[in-house]
Design the sequence.
């Protein structure tokens, strides 16, 4: 039960993009089309889930016993960038179509703050292994939800007349503002 | 534009406006949105980011010829993460209140695209001196936007600036400005205004 | 030197230098960070238990009881503990000073909270109330905890175990009462088990 609540909390109540501002770059950059937003969402969720598990193991089985918490940031970011690389090679080997969909997005994920943010938050909140894993999946689902909604709105926006200086990033930010307000309605639903 | 693209002066000034990392390149937006609920937090975040940017640029431009091309990204990341840890611990030890406010957004400087972006685009190809100029310009440009956005949101959302009340009792603070929605709204308006000014300059 | 060796050497040297630098920096900053944490803790305990000169720590079940002592008094003057629970958006942690029979709260201090700025944050400080910015936390001074702390809305509290909710932040207000009620129960059972 607690895990289900944790999932909902990470996905909607404390949405990574709209209330923690994590993963904004791809949120703005890859939200022009619903199809690419879906792929990006999948890629991020995939990497997030693996990252949550691996960084938990590294932190609790290596860094804490060795009293090396100060190396947390260095080791996490190294692990994430190697993971992304590994995932890329792995996906390329097993499924060509999947690689074609996710391929170009994977390298971008290394500098996606949502991934490192996830690893840091999981440590900060002292989650156990299962909780971290669920938190990773939930956060990924939340990211996908936000980016897909955004892409849906932007596809419609193409037809709207937007003042010229606000075209592109400007109007995207303002749409994101209303989305963030809407998502605030979820706050208080549950808190984990 | 009359200025030559290669003068040192331009190398510095481009970060302030022409290639402003936030308004133009839309880089490093997570901290911009997350910590700008007050001017002072924006300033602290800007300074921490500039410190990391400057230190990493100095190190990377001075050892740029030693790093094999294939491992340059991991090497850059290690250097950046090291300086971020230094900055994070420094804030926690000497400015605990600010450190608490910025919370996990200080470690997230590691993945701030501005820093890795400048290393890739500039420091790994230019001399130490030029890299320092470039990073300082980018850093100052970043700080200016953070403080301006932080100030804008603080005035409207809490009727104060740098913690000092500036608007009287007649003003009902717009709470929304210090909530997440206000961050997106504020930045959207800033980007719009910047584009508008550029359009006018281009036409003039 | 071939490329692979060079790659490995460069990365290894770099990581080692980084590790060395960081452990040196850790040595300088860690004591300060720890000292600050302790000082904050002491200050919070002093605020909620004003009469004590020193305190003993009793640890059990993930909670620490700080039992306040005074040289003029053979009995402990009261005790403090940290109650943690969920607020509107995130965790709220409260330092609670309470009498030894757990019937009356001395005072509370909120250590951490992530409530909505301007609404839920009134549990700490309410700038819109010009007479008493701290009216909400002050309500807990000398509050009776039995049978439990109750929250009333829009009216002045009538009973000694009631507090008034913040308008627009009912969930945060109720969360405060719940966290305190749960924390007091837990602290009470630890105290009875470990100390008495």
Sequence:
């Amino acid at each position: 039960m607690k895990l289900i609540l944790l999932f909902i909390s990470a996905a909607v109540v404390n949405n990574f993009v709209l209330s923690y501002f994590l993963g904004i770059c791809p949120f703005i950059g890859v939200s022009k089309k619903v199809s690419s937003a879906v792929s990006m969402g999948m890629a991020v969720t995939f990497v997030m889930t693996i990252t949550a598990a691996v960084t938990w193991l590294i932190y609790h089985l290596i860094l804490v016993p060795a009293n090396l918490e100060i190396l947390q940031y260095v080791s996490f970011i190294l692990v994430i960038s190697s993971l992304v690389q590994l995932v890329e090679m792995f996906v390329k080997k097993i499924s060509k179509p999947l690689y074609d969909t996710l391929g170009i997005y994977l390298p971008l994920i290394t500098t996606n703050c949502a991934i490192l943010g996830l690893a840091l938050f999981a440590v900060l909140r002292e989650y156990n292994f299962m909780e971290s894993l669920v938190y990773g999946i939930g956060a990924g689902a939340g990211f996908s939800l936000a980016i897909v909604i955004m892409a849906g709105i932007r596809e419609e926006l193409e037809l709207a007349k937007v003042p010229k200086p606000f075209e592109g990033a400007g109007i995207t930010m303002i749409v994101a503002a209303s989305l963030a307000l809407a998502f605030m309605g979820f706050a208080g639903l549950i808190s984990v | 534009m009359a200025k030559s693209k290669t003068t040192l002066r331009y190398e510095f000034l481009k970060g302030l406006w022409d290639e402003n990392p936030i308004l133009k390149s839309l880089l490093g937006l997570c901290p911009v949105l997350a910590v700008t609920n007050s001017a002072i937090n924006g300033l602290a975040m800007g300074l921490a980011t500039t410190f990391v940017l400057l230190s990493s640029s100095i190190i990377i431009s001075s050892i740029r010829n030693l790093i094999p091309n294939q491992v340059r990204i991991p090497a850059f990341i290690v250097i950046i993460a090291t300086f971020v840890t230094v900055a994070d611990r420094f804030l926690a030890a000497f400015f605990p209140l600010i450190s608490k406010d910025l919370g996990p957004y200080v470690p997230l400087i590691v993945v701030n695209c501005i820093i890795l972006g400048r290393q890739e685009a500039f420091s790994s190809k230019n001399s130490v001196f030029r890299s320092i100029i470039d990073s300082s310009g980018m850093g100052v440009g970043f700080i200016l936007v953070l403080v301006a956005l932080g100030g804008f949101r603080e005035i409207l959302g809490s009727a104060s600036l740098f913690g000092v009340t500036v608007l009287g009792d007649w003003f009902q603070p717009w709470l929304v400005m210090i909530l997440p929605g206000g961050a997106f709204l504020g930045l959207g308006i800033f980007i719009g205004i910047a584009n508008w000014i550029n359009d006018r300059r281009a036409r003039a | 030197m071939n490329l692979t060796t060079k790659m490995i050497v460069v990365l290894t040297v770099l990581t080692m230098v980084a590790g060395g630098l960081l452990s040196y920096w850790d040595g300088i900053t860690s004591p300060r960070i720890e000292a600050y944490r302790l000082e904050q803790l002491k200050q919070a305990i002093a605020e909620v238990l004003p009469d004590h000169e020193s305190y003993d720590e009793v640890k059990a079940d993930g909670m620490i009881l700080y039992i306040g002592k005074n040289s003029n008094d053979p009995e402990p003057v009261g005790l403090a503990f940290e109650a943690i629970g969920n607020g509107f958006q995130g965790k709220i942690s409260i330092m609670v000073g309470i009498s030894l029979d757990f019937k009356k709260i001395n005072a509370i201090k909120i250590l951490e909270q992530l409530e909505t700025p301007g609404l839920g944050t009134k549990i700490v400080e309410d700038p819109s109330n010009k007479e008493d910015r701290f009216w909400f936390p002050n309500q807990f001074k000398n509050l009776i905890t039995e049978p439990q702390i109750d929250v009333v809305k829009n009216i002045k509290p009538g009973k000694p175990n009631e507090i008034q909710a913040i308008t627009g932040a009912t969930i945060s207000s109720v969360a405060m009462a719940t966290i305190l009620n749960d924390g007091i129960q837990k602290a009470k059972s630890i105290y009875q088990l470990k100390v008495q």
User: Anything to note?
Assistant: The mean pLDDT of chain A is 85.
